[in-house]
Design goal:
2 copies of one chain form a homodimer.
Chain A (H helix, E strand, L loop, with lengths): L1 E7 L4 E2 L7 E2 L4 E7 L4 H18 L3 H11 L8 H15 L5 E13 L5 E5 L5 E3 L2 E3 L11 E8 L2 H6 L2 H4 L3 E4 L10 H6 L3 H12 L4 E5 L25 E4 L1 H13 L3 E5 L3 E15 L4 E11 L9 H20 L6 E8 L7 H12 L3 E7 L7 E8 L4 H9 L2 H4 L5 E4 L15 E7 L20 H21 L5
Parallel strand pairs in A: 9-10, 10-11, 11-12, 15-16, 15-17, 17-20, 18-19
Antiparallel strand pairs in A: 1-4, 2-3, 5-14, 6-7, 6-13, 8-12, 9-13, 14-16, 18-20
């Protein structure tokens, strides 16, 4: 049986952000499947085996339980991160692939220090405690803390537009919510996260002494969400914290009634860089070992939680791909490599080390698949690639949709993953595992990102989806390099 | 803009149950979309508004919070069910549709009585308490309870095949798990639930004195799942309970080591039938009021929990469809009817009363959409219909896929819902809201089916999906009656 699909398509997109619109582009598609010789049946049979194994024999949930325990709070440079490197190395060693090794990289080492104290100070000195977490890479306030009046803004631009006299000496409170109207929560995140990443720098330029950011979630709850900030000018660094969305609502209400100050005390700091590692397992191909198919996630996670969804799930799913294909007695034609990247959260040092070495050595990654959107029910893959080869390559993999559709998987255009983005110049295809994302930002970068938030079957189905795509890529390759 | 889609398709199906196979049928599809006059853009714009309203203005999560509280444990015939009728009637009255009324139906009134006591009794009289729930419609053991040796089986057929001497006087333990290899958990449920529904009758025929059934879930945990049983012979009724899957595993292990008896004491009973109601809200169409589009769920739920997913979600989503379309200033051409059915769980009296009256009055339901698979992320709709019209009707609605796809919605062949199944003879289309079903049987028929298990956005997206399909059905109708 052979698939012949000819098509010309323009992907439909849901309009971004806050404006109400939907642009539908024309779709012309002629799709013909002709049964010829049984290959498609073989593929369907093997994929069914992948799924059945994933749902009954996979270690991925058990690994994740361990990883979120031994590697609890495994921010790059921490002892927990080192323990996570050891643990996953050991587990990969049990899988019987050709080699497992550590790729060194020097990572930043940010530590949170003592529990943050953040309080609203009302006229008359009444105080209200806020649920807060310092932002990653933030400096501390010093042990005495700081107190300053608060000014609320909704955007970086708003800060830029304010007279310096209004901002100077104040704590700037960024309170633009993630847009709940977005269907894709990652789009809502993308539309709000600039406040967390650049808010401190932009406020510092105007003389602010500190920053408070509304947590990045569509939920209204009491859970603060940390995440990284970037100081754009090393001489203008001010301390920054995230507060829960309920506290952000309260603070905003109070500001409508009276002047409000905030006391914040954080003792976070950046220690000297540490040696750390990407963990890599390689299963060499029998026919085309020079064509690499990568599966990966990032091993580091924020220090306050288990990193179960972000991104323990992506790590154990990538490990699980090797395990399942081994269990099924598969012999890859091409080289399958599982890479657990270090320091995605606050530096991307591991990803960069990997792709710089790979590009420098003129390796060819036929494809790379990253899972970093949580261990939720898979919906398919987003794909991107080099402009010179992408269309042809995507057309090829799009032929496999009939094999993916029974599992609720669809292919669409979109980003892949931060850690693999630098492999694009090798002109293979880059994929991101696409999952149901409605719940992701309930847990992202929090103390509640724990194993109990991950559903075992949903995790396993993601492993199966990745193993399926690896199988098809390995068997059929791509036409264009 | 106009859609012209010509296609001939055979739906792919994943093979059922325990054998490893996948049959892929040939797919021939030619799909052409041609932009002509803006209608599709209008539709896309309106659908986008539906989604934005659902995610920001819908009352459905708030209603569900109330319904799971005032109507906690709202099994048909109970005071909680009466309270749920009152509450939803009141809420529907606020929506400004043409009329809201109660359709009477006499429902069975089963009560659980005192907390079940179910214990393993080991040689030497040592006992182990089991987490158990009596099955709905079961008789009680009498206040003294019963004690009998246990025999484990895996199927109804196995009981049928056993000599009466082996079964007589025993408690039969049905322990065939839901098949974890099924991707669709409803298929796994369908493959195991005969033990719960018919197990007591089949065991009674062989002289058994009681039945213990492994709970219907793929999870291994401590939560027992109730659900209805059917006594096939009113003179051969024996008491039946479900135990948690962890307890089922333990019991099975113990039976491998020694003889095991079970003591069970249940005081459940069936009281005289009660008067109850379907709750119906109608918004009459301006152009074709005789063509009815129904949205619905069932209002009753098991007595031990909040019935948040099963089926409070379906009820509030159906109510939410009216609310959203009202908020958007929509004026339906056809009649939109929201129906909250009573007694789906242990009798289907409400559903039957509705369709018998409707068929008897020669009403025409152009379409009926039931949501009864939990308030999870929507994936589309399953559709069925009368053999004489289904193909043509389905072909028509399949043209709308390009409008649904941006929201991750797809149409596929499949069942609709128990409460609307009797409307098929009206030759319209019957739909079931299709959702991500991996987590449903973590909560189904349990004490943990509470509001906290429902994600607000996922619930709202289901409301939007239903409102979208209602909008398209109302605007374009169907070609065939």
């Amino acid at each position: 049986m052979q698939l012949n699909i000819s098509f010309l398509f323009l992907q439909k997109k849901i309009g971004q952000a806050s404006r109400i619109y939907l642009s539908i582009l024309c779709v012309f598609m002629t799709l013909t499947l002709s049964a010829q010789n049984g290959t498609e049946e073989e593929d369907a049979f093997f994929i069914r085996q992948i799924y059945q194994n994933a749902l009954t024999q996979s270690s991925c949930y058990s690994w994740l339980t361990d990883l979120t325990t031994v590697g609890f709070g495994r921010l790059a440079g921490s002892p927990a991160a080192a323990a996570a490197v050891d643990y996953t190395h050991k587990m990969l060693d049990t899988l019987g692939v050709d080699s497992v090794w550590l790729q060194p990289c020097r990572v930043p080492h940010w530590v949170r220090g003592e529990k943050e104290q953040v309080r609203i100070v009302l006229p008359g000195k009444k105080t209200v405690e806020l649920k807060a977490l310092a932002l990653g890479n933030s400096i501390g306030t010093g042990s005495g803390g700081i107190t300053a009046p608060v000014i609320e803004v909704k955007s970086l631009d708003e800060v830029d537009s304010l007279p310096e006299a209004l901002v100077s000496g104040k704590i700037v409170f960024y309170n633009r919510p993630m847009d709940p109207r977005q269907i894709n929560t990652f789009a809502a995140y993308g539309g709000a996260v600039d406040q967390r990443v650049y808010g401190a720098s932009r406020a510092a330029k105007k003389g602010a002494v500190g920053v408070v950011v509304r947590s990045m979630t569509t939920l209204l709850d009491d859970v603060p969400h940390t995440g990284t900030l970037n100081y754009q000018d090393p001489d203008q660094r001010i301390p920054a914290v995230a507060i829960s969305t309920n506290d952000a609502e309260m603070l905003s209400d109070l500001l409508k009634q009276s002047e409000v100050s905030i006391y914040m005390r954080t003792t976070c700091e950046t220690l000297p860089d540490e040696e750390s590692y990407n963990v890599i397992a390689e299963w060499r191909g029998t026919e085309k070992p020079g064509e690499i198919i990568l599966v990966g996630g990032h091993l580091d996670a924020w220090d306050v939680g288990g990193g179960a969804h972000d991104d323990g799930s992506g790590c154990v799913q990538s490990m699980g791909v090797l395990e399942i294909l081994k269990q099924l007695g598969y012999h890859p034609k091409r080289t399958i490599r599982c890479v657990l990247f270090m320091n995605e959260e606050n530096g991307l040092v591991g990803g960069r080390a990997y792709w710089e070495a790979s590009n420098g050595n003129e390796e060819f990654h036929l494809a790379a698949i990253e899972s970093d959107r949580g261990g939720f029910s898979p919906r398919g893959f987003t794909a991107e690639g080099h402009a010179s080869t992408f269309q042809q390559n995507y057309k090829k993999v799009y032929q496999w949709e009939p094999l993916l559709e029974p599992y609720g998987l669809h292919l669409r255009l979109g980003g892949s993953g931060a850690d693999i983005s630098g492999l694009k110049e090798q002109k293979g295809l880059l994929f991101g595992l696409d999952v149901d994302n409605q719940r992701y930002f309930d847990f992202h970068h929090t103390a509640v990102d724990l194993i109990g938030a991950v559903n075992k079957r949903e995790l396993e189905l993601g492993t199966a989806a990745m193993a399926t795509l690896v199988y098809l890529l390995d068997k059929y390759g791509l036409d264009e390099k």
